[in-house]
Amino acid sequence: MASKSILWQLLACSAIALTGCPGTDMNNSNTKTHVYVPDTTDMPKLALKWEGPLDESTVSHLGPFGVTEGGGGFEETATEYELHLKKGGDPIYALAGGMVVYIQAAISPGAAGEVEGVWVRYGRNFVIKYVHLVDPLVTEGQTISAGDRLGTVASYNQGGFWEVEVQVKEGDKIFAYPWLDFCDTATRATLEGLWTNSAITHGVAKAPWTDLERYDVTERTRPGIF
């Protein structure tokens, strides 16, 4: 779990970022001008909605993206958290409400209908990025609620990946944080239960979230996303 000082830092930077949110568009003609849903600087409380079992019968490994694939703190910094599923095809539901601000096309899609990510902005300072969806059911500028279906987990030869990243605006910088720090009690218990399940692997990862406390993603995030 992130330290209390980190969470206090998030609350403090939320107040700073309130006056630092640009009103620029998303560089996409299909995206509405900035409307903050909800209009708040509070942190989201993420709630996982899942159909069917979520245990060793459906999950093969979990942890920071790249760690179980040789990356993580080695070839790349892991800012995304993933469940490696034994098969794709599960529905993907929104962890929190907000506005869909960007649907990122896949450069080299590994499955038919795949997009690289669906970016949902919560309030003024938080964006949740959902990765490896196929056939998204939402559009840019759409307001959604927690639990709304966004799309479907893409299917690959090695199974499917349910993958999430949380980005936080702090002044003129944007950071990725371990997203479990934002989860509600039930969601955190579910994911930590998977972590402690001896039948599910997590490679060299040392904790059931990312291999960092926060990471500067300012240079690689979508311009104008906040």
Question: What is this structure's SSE topology?
Answer:
Elements (H helix, E strand, L loop, with lengths): L3 H14 L41 E6 L16 E5 L5 E3 L4 E8 L8 E9 L3 E9 L8 E2 L4 E5 L1 E2 L2 E12 L2 E5 L7 H12 L18 E2 L10
Antiparallel strand pairs: 1-2, 2-10, 3-8, 4-5, 4-7, 5-6, 6-8, 6-10, 9-10, 10-11, 11-12
Notes on the structure:
The chain is mainly beta. The protein has one domain: Glucose Permease (Domain IIA), CATH 2.70.70. It is 12% helix and 30% strand. It has two helices and twelve strands, in the order αβββββββββββαβ. Strands 1, 2, 3, 4, 5, 6, 7, 8, 9, 10, 11 and 12 form a twelve-stranded antiparallel beta sheet that branches. The radius of gyration is 17 Å and the shape is globular. Residues 1-8, 10-31 and 66-76 have low confidence and may be disordered.
The count of DSSP E runs of length 2 or more, i.e. the number of strands, is 12
Largest beta-sheet details: 12 strands, antiparallel
Second CATH tier, the architecture? Distorted Sandwich
Cα-based radius of gyration, to the nearest Å:
17 Å
Determine the strand fraction and express it as a percent band.
25-35%
Mean of the pLDDT scores?
Answer: 79
The count of domains is: 1
Text of the CATH class: Mainly Beta
> Which regions contain 5 or more consecutive residues with pLDDT less than 50?
1-8, 10-31, 66-76
Helices and strands, in N-to-C order? HEEEEEEEEEEEHE
CATH superfamily: Glucose Permease (Domain IIA)
Helicity, as a percent range? 10-25%
The CATH topology label is Glucose Permease (Domain IIA)
Number of helices: 2
